[in-house]
Amino acid sequence: MDDVLDPPPADGPPDSTTTLLERARAGDHAAIEALFARCIPPLRRWARGRLPNWARDMADTHDVVQDAVIQTFKRMDTFDARGEGALQAYLRQAVMNRIRDHIRRVGRRPAPTELDTQHEDPGPSPLEQAVGQEAVERYEAALARLSATDRELIVASIELGYDYEQLAEATGRRSADAARKAARRALIKLAEEMDRG
After folding, report:
1. Which is nearest to 47 in space by CA: 8, 1, 97, 4?
2. What CATH number does domain 126-196 carry, 1.20.120, 3.40.50, 1.10.10, 1.10.357?
3. Sequence-ordered list of residues with C-beta below 8 angstroms from that of 115, at least 6 positions apart, any chain
4. 2 pLDDT exceeds 60?
5. pLDDT tens digits along 121-149
6. What is the full DSSP assignment across 33-81?
7. Contacts of 4 (CB under 8 A, 6+ apart)
């Protein structure tokens, strides 16, 4: 057990970033958490205001910073620490690259348009074709018994085919992951309602 690094005593000085990096590379989860706690707040302060308001559709600066740090830490073994400020400088560059990527992605996205609800197709819907009329009736009855929020999540994800990023934007969720979790809960409720019906 000589190769296991013990955490410093509670009253001792905090580990240097270089020491935490070495421990994190060795698989020490406490060191990874300590690096997150040390790196994220100053990066958020540094990045504040760098993501233009018009580009803040589904991501805010905090999300961009956190995503950049997580992706960088996944490749921590390739990072060459050349001094005490090297990690912070490297992370700032990673955040700046994420911000630029996000701005480019938002700039390429077409402006949202409203669907024309005046001209409904009289034929069977793709859902009706796939599962049959009886199943559609059970689905619609179960859907009607759900809350408006759950109905919105299910219609957007199943009937409109939104991916989780689109679903987050359409339903006002903070992230694609939050939209995914909410949609999953709504689908479980729908399945329970369909079993009852």
Report:
1. 97
2. 1.10.10
3. none
4. no
5. 777 777 667 667 777 788 888 889 999 99
6. HHHHHHHHHHHHHHHTTTS-GGG-SS--HHHHHHHHHHHHHHTGGG---
7. none
